[in-house]
Structure formats: structure tokens, C-alpha cells
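Dear support,

I submitted the protein below through the web form. The confirmation email said the job was done, but the results page showed an empty box. After a refresh the structure appeared. I'm attaching both so you can tell me whether what I see now is the final result or a partial one.
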Amino acid sequence: MTTPPDRPGQEGTTSAPTTGLPPPAERGATVIPDKVVTRIAAKAARTSQARRAAVPVHQNQPARPRVTAAVRDGSVRLHLDMDLPYPADIAGVCQQIQRDVAERVSQLTGLRVREVALTVRRLVTGADTARPRVR
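What the results page shows now:
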């Protein structure tokens, strides 16, 4: 079916008939590259680190989390490498961050998050390192 031009100099367009098309599931798939999932997970990890871990702001400020992602068959495995505060409930904070990252990645990509491995790169203390230590 050809539609008439809307403006002078514009040609008619051909619209695809609605019958005869394969079902949406058979038309193709949306592919989300590992790099995109990595960026989403890194942002989610930074947000969760600030909210859950309450890392103190001073000269020992934590480095940004490093993230790797492997997307396969509609699911993703993530590995986070990040700094956490000390003293804190390290195991509890790690579980919260893993849960936050998994939920956010799943929510934004539609992928099933199979695993979120978290490695604590270093522990950041709130002590002022400019003062000498008392013995």
C-alpha cells in the first residue's frame, strides 16, 4: 500500500502488511554488549558503595570499582573489584552491594544476573593519616 505524499517533493512510502510477518519472538533478538553491561554495573556499584558502605571522604578516598561482565544466552556474570570502609560489617556490606548491582543490571537490561562476584581490593579506614599514631 502506498500513502500519498504529505509535503510537496516527498514521495509516498510503502508500509509492510501486518499479515505474513513472523511473530515478534522470531524476528530477532536485542543484543546488549558486555561493555554496556559493564558500564551499567559500574555505575550501580558506585552508587551502592556510596549508599551502603558510607566510605569516608578524605585523602584515602576509594578508587572507582572495576567491573567485568560476561553476557551469554540472556544472562550475565559480573565481577566487581572495589574498596570498602573499615571498620564495617564487610560480609553484610558485600551482600548488599551484590544485591543492589544485580537488581539494577537486571532492571535496566532485562538480563538474568547469574552471579555477582565481589573482590575487596582494599579496606579504607576513616583515620586521619596526617596525625602521628599514638603508642
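Response: this is the final, complete result; the empty box was a page-load delay. The first strand starts at residue 66 and ends at 72.
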